[in-house]
Write a structure and sequence with these properties.
Blueprint (H helix, E strand, L loop, with lengths): L13 H18 L2 H8 L13 H31 L6 H28 L36 H16 L5 H21 L5 H40 L1
Length: 243
């Protein structure tokens, strides 16, 4: 049976909600580019982005690599364990783990780092004239020639932070989420704000990175988890009606 991402979509579904959020955020930052400058200016002084030398904040940034590594190992262990126990059937935990790994590859790897950061050419805050550099400021979604590689739009680390929050949201047992999810969101937000404080990214880089990563993950979840479930429910209903 062919499954479509658009089949049965409702306004309250995550993929629709995140798509709307992405469009709204994009329109906001395109219409009001000064917001990016104003937020970055909060972390800038005569000495530059001085928080970038803070040992605690540098340690916070480094912690994300370890955290991601542990999460990836956990997801791979979930997949391996599920396949060993049930080689002919992909259980829900295995499907969820596969979706999350695919989301990391497609969102953080391909979309964010492979396409946007490589092709949009937006200079980082620390590189623009207003903050001591020599590049011109460009607004969100504006293709520019002010940066040649590993550019500002959008944030790779912001995407990774959003992905880590998604891992906790999807893989944590429901009874634990009231504690684990707020902690994950706080950690992801701290990692993301850290990038603004360091002069590495604008606010729009962070928020749109979160939104785009969430959009890819929501679409994958619907295709891999919701659509098969709806298809099974439809088949059961048809069998019941035919009985």
């Amino acid at each position: 049976m062919r499954l479509s991402l658009a089949v049965g979509l409702r306004l309250r579904e995550p993929v629709v909600v995140v798509l709307i959020a992405t469009v709204v955020l994009s329109a906001y930052f395109v219409a009001l580019p000064g917001v990016d400058m104003a937020v970055s200016a909060l972390f800038h002084s005569e000495g530059g982005f001085t928080l970038s030398g803070d040992p605690a904040l540098k340690a916070l940034r480094k912690s994300s690599s370890w955290t991601m590594g542990v999460m990836l190992l956990g997801l791979m262990a979930t997949i391996a364990g599920g396949l060993i126990r049930s080689p002919r059937h992909l259980t829900i935990p295995v499907r969820r783990a596969l979706v999350l790994i695919a989301g990391l590859v497609l969102a953080s790897g391909l979309l964010v780092n492979g396409v946007l950061k490589s092709m949009w050419g937006r200079a980082r805050p620390i590189q623009i004239e207003a903050f001591g550099g020599d590049a011109d400021f460009s607004r969100a979604w504006s293709v520019s020639d002010q940066c040649l590689s590993n550019c500002s739009f959008v944030s790779g680390e912001g995407s990774s932070a959003a992905w880590m929050v998604a891992v906790v949201a999807v893989m944590t047992p429901p009874q634990w989420r009231r504690w684990t999810l707020p902690a994950a969101v706080a950690y992801g937000a701290a990692l993301s704000i850290n990038r603004i404080a360091f002069g590495g990214h604008f606010l729009s880089d962070i928020l749109l990175s979160w939104a785009l990563t969430g959009l890819v993950l929501a679409a994958l979840c619907r295709l891999a988890l919701s659509c098969p479930r709806k298809a099974r429910e439809t088949r059961r209903a048809r069998r019941f009606a035919a009985a």
